[in-house]
Write a structure and sequence with these properties.
By secondary structure, the protein is mainly α. The protein is built from ten helices and no strands. 30% of the residues are buried.
């Protein structure tokens, strides 16, 4: 017990040391460059404070999060449902694979342009692109999770005629959750990046649009501020959504 606590404190110290090294390298790079090329940590945090006090940060953050979470939910739901069918039936998996591969092989920006033609600029195209690009991630992980279930276990369940309820809860659901969590953790981070990209090209508000405006006016400190905020957002989403969900599923599987 004591050893694990000491190990945890030591790991935390090294984590903090890593952050300090990043900040030191960032500051050194800012000193060696022009402010229009690399914003210093001080000016970046100053821009964050200015955006916070002016309301720009909160307004764009809420818009982007609403789009991201809506697209994420649709993509996760669609990909998981299709993944279940594909995992249970090899013929369906073979039928779905060409479409999944086509989406994964196509550059994301092409879907943004197509969505702009279909839906115009705004939330609809951002949500559509986010859901569309999250769906293959969830499909592949959900299908692989079910397909990874031990075939001997499935045969035993069939031989002993285990009731469907127990079969679903004790055999299929644990296998699905294994793949689901892997896909969901990747989808959470990916959906935010996809949402920002879609806003950057085809929205008149949100974080992506704010980044586009900052680039146009050469407000480098704002660009670095938004980049830092996006990193913190991913870490926060993982801390308040993914980690608690993973702990809950781990306790449920015990």
């Amino acid at each position: 017990m004591t050893a694990s606590i000491i190990q945890g404190i030591s790991d935390r110290r090294y984590y903090i040391l890593g952050i300090m090294l990043i900040l030191a390298g960032w500051q050194a790079l800012a000193w060696a460059s022009h402010p229009l090329i690399v914003a210093s940590p001080g000016s970046t945090f100053g821009s964050i404070f200015e955006m916070l006090t002016s309301g720009e940060l909160t307004k764009n953050l809420l818009i982007t999060l609403q789009r991201q979470l809506t697209g994420l939910a649709l993509g996760v739901l669609t990909g998981t449902v299709l993944g279940i069918f594909g995992g249970l039936r090899k013929s369906l998996d073979s039928m779905f694979q060409p479409g999944i591969n086509a989406i994964l092989a196509t550059p994301s920006v092409i879907f943004v342009v197509i969505a702009m033609v279909w839906f115009g600029q705004g939330s609809t195209q951002v949500i559509f692109v986010t859901a569309l690009l999250v769906m293959p991630i969830m499909y592949l992980n959900s299908a692989k999770g079910i397909q990874s279930i031990d075939s001997n276990l499935l045969q035993m369940v069939q031989v002993y005629r285990v009731p469907n309820r127990i079969k679903v809860l004790k055999v299929y659901l644990p296998g699905l959750l294994y793949g689901f969590m892997a896909g969901f953790s990747l989808s959470v981070a990916s959906s935010l990046r996809i949402t920002i990209m879609a806003e950057l090209l085809g929205a008149q508000n949100g974080i992506g649009n704010a980044i586009f405006i900052a680039r146009g006016y050469l407000e480098t400190s704002k660009l670095f501020a938004w980049a830092l905020l996006l990193v913190l957002m991913v870490m926060l989403i993982e801390a308040i959504v993914f980690n608690p969900l993973q702990r809950f599923i781990s306790r449920w599987q015990e």
